[in-house]
Design brief:
The structure is a single chain. The protein is an alpha/beta fold. The protein contains 8 helices and 9 strands. Strands 3-2-1-4-5-6-9 form a 7-stranded parallel β-sheet, with helices on both faces. A two-stranded parallel sheet has the order 7-8. Strand 1, helix 1 and strand 2 form a beta-alpha-beta unit. Helix 1 crosses helix 8 and helix 3 runs parallel beside helix 4. The longest helix has 28 residues. The radius of gyration is 17 Å and the shape is globular. The relative contact order is 0.15. The structure holds 5-hydroxy-NICOTINAMIDE-ADENINE-DINUCLEOTIDE PHOSPHATE.
């Protein structure tokens, strides 16, 4: 029987690429995000090995509903999230900060709490958290996103200790710049501003990060890849980017 992987934020970017990669490796993939139409299109593309489920990780009832309908779960990829704005802290927008904390930190907590019994029960569970280099590298305008990603990273670290002795691995994937819808969302739909982020440099593609997750999930169950930091060759740190 296929092992089941639940991927949050599977309607675009890293989540969609991860769904394709895990399905190709034999997983039954549960695609979860708010934009159900997109998930249905992706599920159709993947075929029998995919199911689409509406999910808003900022809504506890939505998380509970998804978990209640899942008989088993072997892999949980906490990928849903993102950034809003690039304002200095002096001009911080509380709504944007609140959303970033809700989606990245509380979303990861809610999904993990809800699926933990199934993950432990599988006898060989894996929880992946897609955080960011922003969890540990500062940049101007990044305070709200950095705080959220640092929070998500911290929660996964505590969980690693709490699950010691249980058959569940925990892996943090911390990417640098990846060209997805991330910057379009960050800049409120301004595609031109989003495009400028990657001007003159080659960012990672969603598939590059998905390959890290696929590899982690393919390893024997006694091997826990604690953390992967993956950046484009042209990015040495959150602030040092080489542009042609
Ligand atoms: O971005 P994007 P990525 N409930 O915008 C979903 C991190 N990261 O693939 O709900 C459920 O294409 C949203 O789906 P929808 C980043 O912080 C990125 O790059 O339909 N799902 C969509 O599928 C994030 O944690 C970069 O709108 C929710 C997905 O999240 C992860 O990588 C760098 C949701 C976002 O896809 C994937 O982002 C880095 C909710 N409430 C870390 N809210 C980068 N791209 O440069 C959003 O260091 N989603």
């Amino acid at each position: 029987m296929s092992r089941t992987a639940v991927i949050t934020g599977a309607s675009s970017g890293i989540g969609a690429a991860t769904a394709r990669a895990l399905a190709a490796d034999g997983f039954l993939v549960v695609l979860a995000a708010r934009r159900l139409e997109r998930l249905r299109d992706l599920a159709e593309e993947i075929g029998d090995a995919a199911e689409a489920h509406a999910l808003d990780v900022t809504d506890p009832a939505s998380v509970e509903e998804l978990a209640a309908g899942l008989p088993t779960c072997d892999v949980l990829v906490n990928n849903a999230g993102g950034a809003l704005g690039l304002d200095p802290l002096s001009a911080a927008d509380e709504e944007k900060w609140r959303w970033m904390y809700e989606a990245n930190v509380l979303g990861t907590m809610r999904m993990t709490r809800a699926l933990l019994p199934a993950l432990v029960g599988s006898g060989d569970g894996l929880i992946v958290g897609v955080t960011s280099i922003a969890a540990f590298e500062a940049y101007r305008g990044g305070a709200g996103y950095m705080a959220a990603k640092a929070g998500q990273r911290a929660a996964l670290r505590a969980l690693r200790l709490e699950l010691l002795g249980d058959p569940v691995r925990i892996t943090e994937i911390a990417p640098g710049m990846v060209e997805t819808e991330f910057s379009v969302v960050r800049f409120g739909g301004d595609e031109e501003a989003a495009r400028r982020v990657y001007d003159g440099m080659e960012p990672l593609r969603a598939e590059d990060v998905a390959e890290c997750i696929r590899w982690v999930a393919s390893l024997p169950s006694h091997v826990d890849v604690d953390e992967i930091v993956v950046r484009p060759r042209a990015q040495a740190s959150a602030t040092e980017v080489h542009r042609d």
